[in-house]
Design a protein that fits this description.
It is built from 6 helices and 25 strands. It is mainly beta. Among the domains are: 87 residues, no CATH class; 73 residues, no CATH class. The strands form 2 sheets. It has a 19-stranded mixed beta sheet that branches. It has a 6-stranded antiparallel beta sheet with strand order 20-21-22-23-24-25.
């Protein structure tokens, strides 16, 4: 029995969908489908985050074969397309797409432009109706703006190849970023959002990596070999930093293994504002030797004074950064830090400068040898200024103390990374015997006895 229907769907105003189909007693199929959508406004309700979809979509399908072995010949065309993603600041124009399909192969060709760049996507699926189906695709482009909002403006020039089958998914190629401006302050605001962090007694459970692998054991194996190339016009701004980045980063992903990163990002020039002082940076490097979350940093922040160049050298893994002071010609550490942070000689600082200096010691972890903290303590009239560490940098703390009497020391210690503060009274009963009363999250009374050996 042959049925013929043509209707105008309420959801698709001014659109036409026509269908005609039949199957005879021998289960031979014959049919056709045609559609024409002169407006794509209805897509806005189906695609959250997408606004102002425009274009004309038309297509046709011819059906033949039998019920057990159907065959088809399909075509679909999108012309004069455009849309926007306001959250990203993404505006796609001149979107053209064409699909040609049969039981043996389906081909897709797509092109798009924005205000200055372009993208081209080509994809081919073999045996789309069979379990042996596979997909190959390429994505190429130049200077296409993928983000343009308060957080960043990023242009990309991709050259990617994708392969998919029932056994694996693979992505290879390169990703050139010729120009980008990344605004850290906006990212911090969007992530922070004024939320409340976890309490100190919160328990963080980290799943065993083996369990994670087991949980994804049924997932499609994924491998990737990607090279990210930063051009000469990539800048990082915010949190006092304004720096230019360049360099290459190779990303390697293998099935059931963590992501690896190898390469070197350079910081050829930049500046860093701290305590109302503008420091310059040069010849910085961020080196990746596998772990993408813990690269090695090598960076100098410095300033020129009339008589010397003073600066700070940052080095080591990001998870355990070390910082040292330097100057040319050589100067005492307290003089270097004073010139670096306040722009004044150590002997000419006022109370506000003293506070900035102590804060700098706390924030950067410098002066752990004791000489610098002793000099700061003398300037502030304190008997004890010290930095102490623990099993990790999260356990670092800054302590300051003042003798109320020759035998009674009041000491205040605060964690640099969120640890609770403690107030202690230490009474020296003898040279070896001390009584300590400590108050913080908990209270304690301790008696210590020290023995010196030659």
């Amino acid at each position: 029995e042959q049925q013929d229907s043509e209707q105008q769907a309420a959801l698709f105003p001014r659109s036409t969908i026509s269908a005609l189909g039949s199957m005879d007693a021998d289960e031979n199929l014959q049919g056709s489908l045609s559609l024409d959508f002169p407006s794509l406004d209805w897509l806005e309700a189906l695609l959250p985050g997408v606004s102002e979809p425009r274009g004309r979509l038309s297509g046709a399908v011819e059906l033949s074969g039998t019920r057990t072995e159907p065959s088809f010949d399909a075509s679909l065309l999108l012309a004069e397309g455009s849309f926007a993603v306001p959250e990203l600041g993404l505006v796609v124009q001149e979107l053209q797409a064409g699909v040609q399909g049969s039981p043996e192969q389906v081909n897709l060709q797509l092109s798009a432009r924005d205000e200055q760049g372009d993208l081209q996507l080509a994809a081919q699926m073999n045996n789309p109706l069979d379990d042996t189906r596979s997909l190959s695709a390429t994505l190429e482009g130049a200077d296409f703006v993928v983000m343009n909002n308060e957080g960043a403006r990023v242009e990309v020039s991709p050259d990617l190849q994708l392969g998919w089958s029932a056994e694996a998914l693979q992505v290879n190629g390169s990703f050139l970023v010729p120009r980008a401006d990344i605004f850290l302050d906006a990212w911090i605001d969007s992530v922070g959002g004024g939320g409340v962090g976890p309490s100190r007694d919160a328990v963080v459970v980290v799943e065993d990596p083996a369990a994670q692998v087991a949980a994804t054991g049924n997932a499609l194996p994924f491998t990737a070999r990607l090279t990210i190339i930063l051009g000469d016009e990539v800048r990082l701004q915010g949190l006092g930093l304004d720096a230019r980045l360049t360099g290459d980063l190779a990303l390697q992903q293998d099935a059931d293994r963590p992501l690896l990163a190898y390469g070197e990002l350079l910081i050829p020039e930049g500046s860093y504002a701290i305590y109302n002082q503008q420091l310059q940076t040069r010849d910085g490097r961020v080196m990746f030797y596998g772990n993408p979350l813990d690269p090695v940093l090598d960076l100098r922040a410095f300033r020129e004074t009339p008589n010397a160049e003073v600066g700070m050298q940052l080095g080591g893994n990001v998870s355990a950064l070390q910082s040292t002071l330097y100057s040319s010609p050589p100067l005492p550490e307290n003089e270097i830090l004073a010139l670096l942070i306040t722009g004044k000689s150590f002997n000419n600082m006022d109370e506000r400068d003293d506070n900035a200096l102590v804060s700098a010691v706390a924030n950067f972890g410098i002066g752990r040898s004791g000489g610098l903290t002793s000099a700061i303590g003398d300037t502030l009239g304190l008997d004890d200024v010290s930095l102490s560490g623990g099993e990790s940098y999260l356990d670092s703390s800054l302590g300051v103390g003042k003798h109320l009497t020759p035998d009674l020391l009041m000491r205040y210690e605060i964690g640099l990374f969120g640890r609770a503060a403690t107030l202690s009274l230490i009474y020296s009963l003898t040279e070896q015997l001390k009584l300590e009363v400590r108050s913080g999250l908990s209270q304690s009374v301790d008696i210590s006895y020290s023995i010196e050996k030659d």
